[in-house]
Design a protein that fits this description.
The protein has 170 residues and is mainly alpha-helical. The chain has one domain. Helices cover 76% and strands 2% of the residues. The protein is built from 6 helices and 2 strands; from the N terminus they run H-E-H-H-H-E-H-H. The chain has helices at 2-22, 40-48, 51-72, 80-101, 108-136, 143-168, and strands at residues 34-35, 106-107. It has a two-stranded parallel sheet with strand order 1-2. Helix 1 packs antiparallel against helix 3, helix 3 packs parallel to helix 5 and helix 5 (108-136) crosses helix 6. The radius of gyration is 18 Å and the shape is globular. The N and C termini lie far apart (52 Å).
């Protein structure tokens, strides 16, 4: 009961911070803008070795990582797929609200990196839950499920590390 209440409080705090980061303190854009080129910001950051775009990708990933952790946390946490789908819905709502209010712009890459971050956080929690359950039951943990749920986080570390090395070589 205490853990549920703590999760609820942390989720409230998280959503307050998320709203502050995505909407408060921003000036309205002169017109509504949408970036619909899938992985366009990734290509631009890669081709131009553009620090600002790269760190924007990292920020979008990190912004949703806590959501995945909070939703996947504990034995009663949401499944990896439920965390991922909920993060996609939340991210889509944020992007649509930014488009409508002109407090930012709609960007499909932001949705991708937000979902990636939440999936990484949720996958990490679910894999730790799976591991502890397997150990607790004195059976063998389901290693394939554990590693599969860690894949989004591992891919981010590879992406981030390789990108940083490439940026430093410029």
């Amino acid at each position: 009961m205490v853990l549920r209440f703590l999760r609820f409080l942390l989720l409230l705090l998280y959503f307050a911070l998320l709203l502050a980061v995505t909407f408060l303190g921003r000036e309205q854009e002169p017109e509504r803008m949408a970036w619909l080129s899938l992985f366009g910001s990734f290509r631009r950051a890669w081709d131009e070795r553009h620090d600002f775009i790269f760190w924007g990708i990292v920020a979008n990933f990190m912004m949703m990582l806590p959501l995945g952790i909070l939703l996947g946390w504990g034995r009663r946490g949401l499944s990896f797929w439920k965390v991922t789908l909920l993060a996609a819905a939340i991210s889509l709502c944020i992007e649509c609200a930014q488009y409508v209010t002109r407090l930012g712009y709609f960007d499909v890459d932001d949705i991708c990196t937000n979902v990636w971050g939440a999936a990484a956080g949720g996958g990490f929690c679910r894999s730790m839950n799976e591991l502890s359950e397997g150990i607790r039951k004195a059976g063998n943990p389901k290693w394939i499920r554990i590693f599969a749920q860690l894949l989004p986080f591992a891919l981010f570390l590879v992406f981030f590390g390789y990108f940083l090395i490439r940026m430093r070589q410029a």
